[in-house]
Design brief:
Blueprint (H helix, E strand, L loop, with lengths): L1 E5 L5 E8 L5 E8 L5 E5 L5 E10 L5 E10 L5 E7 L26 E8 L3 E8 L14 E7 L27 E6 L2 E6 L9 E5 L4 E7 H4 L7 E2 L1
Antiparallel strand pairs: 1-4, 2-3, 2-5, 5-6, 7-8, 8-9, 9-14, 10-11, 10-15, 11-12, 13-14
């Protein structure tokens, strides 16, 4: 991250970037202010939300301070699938409506983009909604995401929904052998027989509106030709 600005020549500028998504890990840098008054300094940051504190200190000890928040929502890895979805189609067959409680925000269930990435060790899923305002105290408190994974080589598959109360089935040609489920207050990663396969790593960003979650390739398999995601 390059931070720049202007200050009184002779001052020294100190910059600290604290990542609030990574246990408040902090990186720092400093630079003197040249004769022109302009200054610029590079500060290493990682993915997530960083709070950047900039302090200019004069030779006499006087200070000036400014704070900025930077969102770096980047997920490394090879993109295997990247599809978009239209705005305003969050009404099911045409007559589904949002709950009337003001906890639910317009666009909270309107999918806009879905991605699958491979970082070498994990398969990463990213789902973007039109609105991802925190709900019920959770960054994704209103959303529940089920990804049904179809591996054409799998011997045991299912067309069942995550729970019978969902009242739908998966198309037979996309019968699933792995289910990854994430929500604001829980998660599941199971095979078609219902056996648990491990833990899902989950994060959400209200600014980029992406829910990002991942599982190990050792448990999911290596996505390739013929694989599908519902």
């Amino acid at each position: 991250l390059t931070v720049s600005g202007t200050s009184t020549p002779g001052n020294t500028v100190y910059v600290a970037a604290t990542n609030t998504d990574s246990n408040s890990a902090t990186t720092t840098a400093s630079t003197p202010v040249g004769a022109s008054g302009s200054w610029s300094v590079d500060v290493p940051v990682t993915g997530g939300i960083s709070v950047v504190n900039v302090v200019a200190v004069s030779p006499s000890g006087g200070t000036a301070h400014v704070v900025r928040t930077v969102v770096f929502d980047f997920t490394p890895g090879t993109v295997l699938l990247d599809v978009t979805d239209p705005d305003g189609d969050d009404n099911g067959p045409g007559n589904y409506a949002y709950p009337t409680s003001d906890n639910f925000h317009a666009g909270a269930f309107d999918i806009q983009r879905f991605q699958v990435l491979d970082d070498g060790t994990n398969v990463i899923f990213r789902l973007q909604t039109r609105d991802l305002s925190p709900t019920f105290g959770s960054p994704l408190g209103a959303q529940l995401v089920d990804v049904y994974v179809h591996d054409p080589a799998a011997s045991t598959t299912s067309t069942d929904a995550s729970f019978p109360q969902r009242k739908y089935r998966i198309a037979p040609s996309f019968a699933w052998n792995r289910l990854v489920e994430v929500q604001g207050f829980g998660q599941r990663f199971i095979d078609a027989g219902g056996a648990g396969l491990g833990t899902v790593t989950i994060k959400a960003n209200a600014i980029s509106r992406f829910i990002t979650f991942s599982v190990p390739k050792a448990a999911l398999g290596q996505p390739g030709p013929g694989w599908a995601f519902t």
